[in-house]
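Homework help board

Subject: predicted structure for assignment chain

Our instructor gave us this sequence and asked us to write out the predicted structure in token form, then describe one feature. I got the tokens but I'm not sure how to describe them. Can anyone check?
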Amino acid sequence: MRWEIDAKTRLIALIGDPVEHSLTPRIQNAALQRLGVNVRNLAFRVTPENLRDALQGFKAIGALGVMVTMPHKEVAFRLADDADEFAQLMGSANLLVLRPDENGKVRATAYSTDGYAASRSLKEAGIDLRGKRIALIGTGGAGRALAFQFALDGAAELRLFNRTLQRARRLAQELRRKLKFTAVSVFPHEPQTLKEQLSDCDLLVNATSVGMHPNEDETPVPADALRQGLTVLDIVYNPVRTRLLREAKQKGCRIVDGVPMLVYTNERALALCLGISVSSELVTLMKQVCYRALGVRPAG
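My token output:
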């Protein structure tokens, strides 16, 4: 059966600035086609000054939801009508689900799914975060979500590394105030400090864009700070095998690439926007499409 767009086609939008690089439309549309639903994912470049109007437009045309990337996550949260518990904790959103209320007025409910997606990726790789000492590089949007999620997942300790210490300190204060998570410390993102602090960590997570295409030769962690027994997650997915992951594998580390995290944000968007349970077979399909688009097999 041909997969066509007609007057009944519904929309899940992806917005950001820029957004042209995203693989979300490709992998999500593969899942939507397999589901056999008349829904499509389309990406739209929306500048900050046009965000409010764009969201009103998506409400007006009956879109099912809006996936939100940088730099809109915090403003999108503030523009939402409601928010789930984790989005409220974060004060930001990467998904707005649009539904009419009993009076027919469309309301936007904000969700933050980056933490969920990272946690699912690690659990899928057989990594239990309970009792783990975790080094987290980067305390921006993604880093914040991961820090809160790891604390909720039972991490024993979080060590936050950031070039701007003030931002990392603010996150540490939020973790202490909102979650009563006190086992959190802040360090400058510099080679010698990383080497010292990673010596007894269980998990290292890169939540920055360092190493992303076209800057594949960059790494957020010097190779001599890596050691056997350490697990390394890099949320960068293009390239899949970042310099950090290549050097970590050479050192005998267990590695987890960024594709599963991207896929699980899409899995969550499908589940919430369509009101369905997404099967493991559909998740596998989305991973295959993503890896194929990036020209590699899964890292491991």
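Reply (TA_rk): Your tokens look well-formed. For the description, you could write something like this. The longest strand covers residues 10-16. That's the kind of observation they're looking for.
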